[in-house]
């Protein structure tokens, strides 16, 4: 099982900012996940992969794809206190779920 | 309220690796947090700050400090499948908790 977190590479986030947005997305999708799946994922070491995308449209398309596949997912918008304009879409998490189900949504993206 | 995630800046983690370790730490400390505190933190937008430290000894010292203060915290060791040696300590999350309580533990560190 794994969780894929897709973050935008086109908005110049610093390393710490990127990490915080990825953590927001990860936790939010986790909260959208059923208890049984959570337990299994954590039991296997809560595997996470961080992937990159350019542009918010990609994130919305992937979120729709995840919805249609019935996978937990969460899109993050930045509050905009620092670095970014308020409401900027920064990241999307898909899963945790079985690896192949996650790959059907995010399998074409490169590692961040 | 906030959660501070302290990540090592001395082990050459790539951006994606760093983000994944920060997300592991964030989720693990969150799981160590009581329901009431979780709810309040999420209601306020689950504020996270990512800070840097050099060396695992700093992470262990801060974790002890958090324990003594009764704050939720979690240290992450990497499984070592990529980039790092197995068992390498990579990150520590402290909180969520009130800002001033978190600052008493991590207030001296710089933003990542």
TrEMBL record, chains A, B:
InterPro entries: Pep_tRNA_hydro_II_dom_sf (IPR023476), Pept_tRNA_hydro_arch (IPR034759), PTH2 (IPR002833). One of its GO terms (biological process) is translation. Pfam families: PTH2. The keyword Hydrolase applies. Transmembrane segments: none annotated. It is an enzyme of class 3 (hydrolase). It is found in: Cytoplasm. GO terms for molecular function: peptidyl-tRNA hydrolase activity. Keywords: Cytoplasm, Hydrolase. Gene3D superfamilies: Bit1. Its EC number is 3.1.1.29. Its main location: cytoplasm. It catalyses: an N-acyl-L-alpha-aminoacyl-tRNA + H2O = an N-acyl-L-amino acid + a tRNA + H(+). One of its GO terms (cellular component) is cytosol. Belongs to the PTH2 family. The natural substrate for this enzyme may be peptidyl-tRNAs which drop off the ribosome during protein synthesis. This is Peptidyl-tRNA hydrolase.
């Amino acid at each position: 099982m794994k969780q894929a977190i897709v973050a935008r590479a086109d908005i110049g986030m610093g390393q710490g900012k990127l990490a915080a947005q990825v953590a927001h997305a990860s936790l939010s999708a986790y909260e959208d996940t059923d208890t049984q799946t959570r337990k299994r994922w954590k039991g296997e070491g809560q595997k996470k992969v961080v992937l990159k995308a350019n542009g918010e449209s990609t994130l919305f398309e992937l979120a729709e794809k995840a919805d249609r596949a019935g996978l937990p997912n969460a899109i993050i918008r930045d509050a905009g206190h620092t670095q970014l304009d308020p409401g900027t879409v920064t990241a999307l998490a898909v899963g945790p779920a079985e690896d192949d189900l996650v790959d059907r949504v995010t399998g074409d993206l490169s590692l961040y």
